[in-house]
Design a protein that fits this description.
The chain is of the alpha/beta class. It is built from seven helices and ten strands. The chain has a six-stranded mixed β-sheet with strand order 6-7-8-3-9-10. A four-stranded antiparallel β-sheet has the order 2-1-4-5. The longest helix is centred in the C-terminal third of the chain and has 18 residues. Bound molecules: adenosine-5'-diphosphate and magnesium ion (MG).
Length: about 240
């Protein structure tokens, strides 16, 4: 039940020309593992997630989710796949201002046409696992940035997806809260056996990653040794502390 991208290329229209956003990308993310994706701004990280989420159809190549090839699926079929199989966490938690934390999650079950009774208990279980059970009745405006991101993550998991796609979830948070969010994502990946792709700009976030990939000009390479990548990150951190 992996997430598998094979030879995926994507271009966007740019006036008369086209800009190459993904260049023959290959990526396989087994269940229960986190692949961290690094890369400079504009290198194609968000495009990679959009293609994996089936929000954008690539020019060529295949995206296979839970053993199903998404090429040639109808719009309705893709929408159902996204609803049932894919959890997406964007940079900014786009919660509905008028809904409480528990309602943000319930809505997902409602959209999927599932009975509400079970949804309440599922939602509470999830809020508990992200440390937000005691905030279930709060609306977004009365939550901190970190708490909102926790609700956002819980919501992405509400329909028990097999794939979890996370785009720079900590950019609005300080280092400590950011690390806590990344640790949460890693733990939930193991517990719920999701194939998780975590886009991050922060090497400190590689600590829990099973694999580390880098994107440059739309080309993705898996770093041969995730442990070495993490070591490099520790080294960098130490030297930064020394400079200070
Ligand atoms: P990243 O997330 O790594 O910053 P993106 O995937 O957002 O990179 O962008 C990759 C490239 O594609 C960039 O050159 C960007 O300008 C371009 N791009 C992204 N989205 C669009 C779009 N909707 N239309 C045209 N070009 C786009
Ligand atoms: Mg981006």
């Amino acid at each position: 039940m992996s997430l598998t991208l094979t030879d995926v290329s994507l271009t966007y229209a740019d006036g008369e020309d086209r800009v190459l956003a993904l260049d023959r990308v290959n990526l396989d993310v087994p269940p229960g593992t986190v692949t961290a994706v690094l890369g400079p701004s504009g290198s194609g990280k968000s495009s990679l997630l959009a293609v994996a989420a089936t929000l954008i159809t690539p020019d060529s190549g295949t995206v296979v989710i839970a053993d199903a090839d998404t090429a040639g699926m109808s719009r309705d079929h893709l929408a159902e796949l996204r609803r049932r199989r894919i959890g997406i966490v964007f940079q900014q938690p786009n919660l509905v201002p008028s809904l409480t934390a528990v309602e943000q999650l319930q809505v997902m079950a409602w959209i999927d046409g599932r009975p509400l009774g079970r949804a309440v208990s599922d939602a509470m279980t999830l809020l508990d696992s992200v440390g937000m059970a005691d905030q279930a009745d709060r609306r977004p405006h009365s939550l901190s940035g970190g708490q909102r991101q926790r609700v956002n993550i819980a919501r992405a998991l509400m329909n028990e997806p097999t794939v979890l796609l996370v785009d720079e979830p900590t950019s609005a948070l300080d280092q400590e809260r950011g690390m806590a969010i990344v640790e949460l994502i890693t733990r939930l990946t193991r517990e719920r056996a999701t194939s998780t792709v975590l886009v991050t700009h922060d090497r400190a976030h590689l600590a829990g990653a099973d694999r580390v990939a880098e994107v440059h000009d739309g080309r993705l390479s898996i770093l041969p040794d995730a442990a070495a990548a993490r070591g490099a990150s520790l080294g960098q951190k130490t030297s930064r502390i020394r400079e200070v």
